[in-house]
Design a protein that fits this description.
By secondary structure, the protein is α/β, with parallel strands linked by helices. The chain is built from nine helices and 15 strands. Bound molecules: flavin-adenine dinucleotide.
């Protein structure tokens, strides 16, 4: 199998290379190294000068913008077809997308158009003797499922956004990418479903494994504090989790329990309130981007896991936070 060609789909929401876009570039640069592939990025929006430089910081050799692609962002079937046509024209062997709203919608459309293999939420890629080995978590993260790609057909991959980091590899040198626009040949039919609106997930019911921000209550919460925390979570639009003793008291459903026997979570922010930091709980929160803990015991083990810790009594701090939120401090997102 030769190295082939890797194409990364970068969304550029609002014309900006956001955290996810930078994460895909970092992941893609590494993947290109593993595959020994030539690579480049495809966008639906023409990147402005500053944004192009940001692509270059990740060593992106080439950026191709789909002419008129911006109009296709609400018509994934058409955008997916355009990306697939471009990939076919360029002889791309691997396409990489983030597993977010748009990426996970486009991936099957592209795979179907290219008659390609599709593997979603891939966590690791390495070269084996039999081909390229792609692993992803299965059974709620308790097992890793590994598949081998032999390179005979194109491959479409998505990567979970929580697995993305914006690390600049030391081997990557900043360059000025070649920018091109690509005109899709006219389609015989332009009929496709259009997205007319997006309803954001409800933080109160969203699966905790997908939650962006989690406030979690431990046994240090009394009933009054617990109710205040739930209200705080609603006001700030964040998800709510609990430890096992709180679940055992019947204050929350099993789906809200986090830890070894509960959910394994990976939010951007995990706020641990009145949680001691037992290994059974910490095992389920270690992939969080940032852990902040509030506990009245300065020696609580959670402080050794937390990025930031506050020694404070919840009975004092939670009413203050709630008053601030009630006075219209806005959402956490
Ligand atoms: C096999 C097994 C599996 C388990 N699985 C899980 C699991 O999935 N998830 C899980 O959470 N647990 C699990 N446990 C239980 C786990 O071992 C701990 O008992 C549990 O995580 C402790 O929860 P906690 O931190 O809420 O309570 P505690 O350990 O009692 O800690 C309460 C903390 O609150 C602080 N505090 C008290 N009052 C205040 C106040 N007013 N202001 C501020 N801080 C205050 C205290 O200083 C203390 O640190 C499991 C146990 C076993 C044996």
């Amino acid at each position: 199998m030769d190295g082939g060609k890797l194409l990364l789909f970068i969304e550029l929401p609002g014309g900006e290379l956001d955290e996810i876009g930078r994460g895909i570039l970092s992941w893609g640069a590494r993947l290109a190294g593993v595959l020994g592939a030539d690579w480049g990025a495809v966008t639906a929006v023409v990147p402005e000068g500053g944004q192009l430089a940001a692509f270059g910081a990740f060593g992106t050799p080439a950026v191709t913008a789909i002419a008129g692609g911006e109009r296709l962002l609400d018509a994934p079937a058409l955008l997916g077809k355009a990306v697939a046509d471009l990939a076919a024209e360029r002889g791309a062997t691997v396409l990489l997308l983030p597993h977010n709203d748009l990426g996970s919608t486009l991936a099957p459309v592209i795979a179907a158009a290219l008659d390609a293999a599709l593997l979603t939420e891939v966590a690791a890629v390495r070269r084996g003797e039999d081909g390229v080995r792609l692993s992803r978590p299965a059974l709620g993260g308790r097992l890793a499922e590994t598949k081998v790609w032999d390179g005979k057909r194109p491959l479409v991959l998505t990567v979970p956004t929580r697995a993305l980091s914006q690390v600049l590899l030391p081997t990557v040198r900043a360059i000025t990418p070649v920018l091109a626009t690509w005109q899709q040949p006219p389609l015989s039919t332009l009929r496709a479903a259009r997205i007319i609106g997006r309803i954001p997930p409800d933080p109160e019911t969203v699966d905790l494994t997908e939650a962006e921000v989690i406030f979690s209550a431990g046994k240090g919460c009394d009933p009054a504090t617990f109710e205040q925390l739930k209200e705080l979570g609603r006001l700030l639009n964040v998800s709510f989790g609990v430890t096992r003793p709180v679940f055992d008291q019947g204050w929350a459903e099993f789906e809200r329990m986090i830890g070894q026997t509960g959910r394994t979570v990976a939010p951007r922010l995990y706020l641990a309130l009145g949680i001691s930091g037992s290994m059974h709980h910490v095992g389920g929160i270690q992939d969080s981007r940032r852990i902040v803990a509030i506990n009245n015991d300065p020696n609580a083990p959670i402080f050794t896991t937390a990025d930031e810790g506050f020694v404070a009594d919840l009975g004092t701090i939670v009413p203050l936070l709630l008053a601030k939120a009630r006075s219209g401090a806005g959402g956490a997102r």
